[in-house]
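Encode chain A's predicted structure.
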Amino acid sequence: MIQNRKKIEIKTRSTKNKIEMSTGKLLLSLLGTVLFILIGFWLIINSESVALSRNTYQLVPTVGGILGIIFFGICLVNIIRLLFQKNAGLTIDKNGITDNSHSTSVGFIDWNDITGTKRVKIAKTKILLLFTDKPEKYINRAETNRFRRVLEANHKKYGTPISIMSGTLRIKFGDLEKLILERLETKDK
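Encoded structure for chain A:
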């Protein structure tokens, strides 16, 4: 089967760049998440046979199953929310960047608030950190305590609460980084 792939064109001189969510990547994540939830249920149901030895309590696989269901259940909700959102995953225009690409996105980021960038890699995920002299402005946008704690932890560990990754977007990380850096350089021109 031949798939017709749409080439993503990056036009840094245009007034607005919209990068859509990658339905394929999200569906793959959804499938993996459902698989881990099913494994959690399996661990609970079969906790007696999963125990490593007679001396190991059934509690260990049961607790592992419950924690897996809770964690991946939260992931499942976030993936479904991303699949059905109507906004572009990332919009880059003359005013700044609007990030709706993941559950800890901060929304609109003004170019004037960005003081620098840095590429980091966590496991196999490449992340573009956007440094700001107004971190509290973005941390205060958190709608839940869990979201706030994530942003505060990012700020403490990396020096910024703002991060952008291409994992759920229809763009390669290198192209995304290049686009943002070029727009950042020409923002005042």
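The first strand starts at residue 16 and ends at 19.
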